[in-house]
Amino acid sequence: MDVLSVVGARPQFIKAFVVSRELRRDHDEILVHTGQHHDEELSDVFFEELGIPEPDHNLGIGSKSHTTQTAQMMTGLEALVDEYDPDVLFCYGDTNSTLAAAIVASKRDVKLAHVEVGLRSFNREMPEEMNRILTDHASDILFPPSERAVDNLEAEAISDGVYNVGDVMYDSLLWAREEGAKRSTIREDLGVENTEYLLATVHRPRNTDDRERLETILASLAADPRPVIFPAHPRTIDRLERYNILETAEEDLTLVDPVGYLDFVTLQARAEIIVTDSGGIQKEAFFLDVSCVTLREETEWPETVEAGGNVLVGADADAIGEALADPPQALSDAEPYGDGKAGEKIVQVLSELSE
Ligand code: UDP
């Protein structure tokens, strides 16, 4: 089959890598980067270390209002659909790049395959939630990561073309854990080789764009006696500067630029506790059996909370403090996200559909 794959943001490079490496054995793939993430540390580094080929096209659409960004991506993608006439358009996750791909596929009558479908936080104020709902309803071939995701789709009357293959991020994590152990020196570089440390990330607008929430989170992290490694997203740095608290953050935490995937997984694997508002990182903590404290009120990965290793604390200082003092522990060895062979299974489905 001729496949046109659309990626644009950090977690999508990681997800697409898993599918691309299998897909390219038997199918032709054109890889399109929308340019949604364009910084070296949020984009280029992933192509280098994951060993995926450079994108065939980069639409170069950077930060804009959500509407303008999505519209410009649609215009760029439509021209490429005209040029390549693909059989299937692949999209990943829940960003504006995902939604743009979904709308173009549906308007141009190209089959849409969506990887990581059926997730719901049930919070429609999150921009990602609307992207998920709209894309899921426009999809023809759907790859949910869990039974819960299948149930969420069924609750919205989506049942055709659904293949529960497990989570592609489990595949990538297994690879990165092994590669990171061989190649990453990040713990030595940051001086935490033999130290108990926390690993924290904050990048959701709900936390960064609300000064009080961000300050509470940083103060709660600073109150912990252990070193806190904090790879800071460009949006977070921007807000710290704007709120005039960058210096304090630098004094209290080990603030570093976002690190590559192998380094990040290596840091996660040995962290005492991971503190985050990221979706993917909650799950990676779960895969690595590291306690996770989630700085949100809800999650689209509820299995991680039910298993016991993840706790939702929002931006509440007391709740964060309690969770850091008494971190959540996984009670079950449930494997709700498959067996780490999602990439293979996705391509198998595609091959069967093309027969
Ligand atoms: N990640 C990374 N370097 C970092 C922080 C995160 O490689 O400095 C990886 C992380 O391992 C995970 C993904 O980026 O696979 C999560 O991306 P992000 O938090 O941006 O997005 P979300 O999952 O919340 O959509």
Task: Record the SSE blueprint.
Elements: E1 2-7, H1 10-26, E2 28-33, H2 40-50, E3 57-58, H3 66-84, E4 88-92, H4 96-107, E5 111-115, H5 127-138, E6 141-143, H6 147-155, H7 168-183, H8 186-189, E7 198-201, H9 205-208, H10 211-222, E8 228-231, H11 234-242, H12 246-252, E9 254-256, H13 261-270, E10 273-276, H14 279-288, E11 291-294, H15 302-306, E12 310-312, H16 317-325, H17 342-354
Parallel strand pairs: 1-2, 1-4, 2-3, 4-5, 5-6, 7-8, 7-10, 8-9, 10-11, 11-12
Helix pairs in contact: 1-2, 1-7, 1-17, 3-4, 4-5, 7-13, 10-16
The chain binds uridine-5'-diphosphate.
Structure description:
The chain has helices at residues 10-26, 40-50, 66-84, 96-107, 127-138, 147-155, 168-183, 186-189, 205-208, 211-222, 234-242, 246-252, 261-270, 279-288, 302-306, 317-325, 342-354; strands at residues 2-7, 28-33, 57-58, 88-92, 111-115, 141-143, 198-201, 228-231, 254-256, 273-276, 291-294, 310-312. Helix 3 (66-84) crosses helix 4. The model has no long low-confidence stretch (mean pLDDT 96). With 355 residues, the protein is of the alpha/beta class. The protein has two domains: 2-167 and 338-354, Glycogen Phosphorylase B (Rossmann fold, 3-Layer(aba) Sandwich); 175-336, Rossmann fold, CATH 3.40.50. The relative contact order is 0.13. The strands form two sheets. A six-stranded parallel sheet has the order 3-2-1-4-5-6, sandwiched between helices. Helices cover 50% and strands 14% of the residues. It has 17 helices and twelve strands. It is globular. It binds uridine-5'-diphosphate. Uridine-5'-diphosphate binds at residues 10-11, 14, 201, 203, 231, 258-261, 264-265, 278-281, 284.
